[in-house]
Amino acid sequence: MERKINVPISKEDAKSLRAGDYVYLTGTIYTARDAAHKRMQETLDAGSPLPLDWTGNVVYYMGPSPAREGYPIGSAGPTTASRMDKYTPRLLDMGLGAMIGKGKRSQAVTDAIIRNGSVYFAAVGGAGAILSKRILSSEVNAYEDLGTEAIRKLEVKDFPVVVVIDSEGNNLYETARKEYAREI
Length: 184
Description:
Layout: E1 2-7, H1 11-16, E2 22-31, H2 34-45, E3 58-60, H3 88-93, E4 98-101, H4 107-116, E5 119-122, H5 128-132, E6 135-142, E7 151-165, H6 172-183
Parallel strand pairs: 1-2, 2-3, 3-4, 4-5
Antiparallel strand pairs: 2-7, 5-7, 6-7
């Protein structure tokens, strides 16, 4: 199924998506990678508030390359999501609506997705130059000292992703592998 979704994502939209759905996101998403996630964890452990409320928001595991003249951002491909797995359940429990990355997730992340009615999207790895054309603006939102790993606010239009893990825990990586094996 093909869907267009406005972000931040509502619980209703997240729960309506199924593993394998093609989705085009329009609105605001945020980037954060390893260093930003580590800093957020340290901030929470210290009892301090995060620099933004993740409720309903979408995090894109991406570190952009420098923007060329006349463009808001350089290449903007996904990074491996499992590197954020030790931090993700806590953010999901705080209301994070969805994540965009590439690759498998841990069982703890899948459990937190189910528990919170969230969703994990994949973006196509190696297509960063093409994906950047769907980004209308980019600005540092927090942790500027982290450079490319700072949290950035992106405005996107029809940003293409695929639902990998839906709110019921259905996992496209697992079902596709089984379907492929059955066809062989």
